[in-house]
Amino acid sequence: MSEFIFMLTRDDVTVGDALDRYAEVRGSGLRWVGFKDVGLPFDQLRALADAIHADGRKVALEVVSLDQGSEVRSASAALEIGVDLLMGGVHPEAVLPLVASTNVLYFPFPGRVVDHPSVLEGSVDEIAASAEQLTSLRGVHGLDLLAYRFAGDVPRLMEAVVAASIGPVVIAGSVDSDTRIHAVRRSGAWAFTVGSAVFDHAFQAQPTTAAQVDHILEVATASSRAPSEA
User: Fold this and answer.
1) N or C: fewer beta carbons within 10 Å in the chain?
2) d(Cα 119, Cα 22) in Å, to the nearest integer?
3) What's the rounded Cα separation, in Å, for the pair 138 and 149?
């Protein structure tokens, strides 16, 4: 199985009613819930993180700001609100000193990440080399791979990055079908995120946040043989 991290986000921005949306899935089997560093003030993100932790779940924050100053500010704020997993970002040299003395897991982006919503550029070999280099750094625990934001052979990319990475890999962005979840599982990735697709009711389940999340959890933990992606 692969771990499902439910992101309270749409189009790479934390949704304005994130607390209400989280309340809809409090009774689910989720173990991880996350959000982005943009979309809500950090005092509201702190309240959101507190609510998630109060239910015994882990909190992930994904940094999508690409300039170094914004990334450092977001990472510092993430530590202040007590996240368990800091994902994303492209400036590990600036973030690693911040997380060095903490228990926060740090999973930066491999490859060249541009624009917002984020896009992954480079060849499979280049991104895999980036994965190997990043996870060789002390304090980098794993990677945040924007596999379905890559205009190429996505299954090959996922498998190459999982093979090259010393630590676990999260597949983030545009995981919007059962078929893609099955592909993530076959790649050996530790986890995947879904945000927009839940709120857009992309999965074959009732058009509610809770039903969409429950469906994804079922697919992520299913023991049956998964079909190949077309």
Assistant:
1) C
2) 27
3) 27
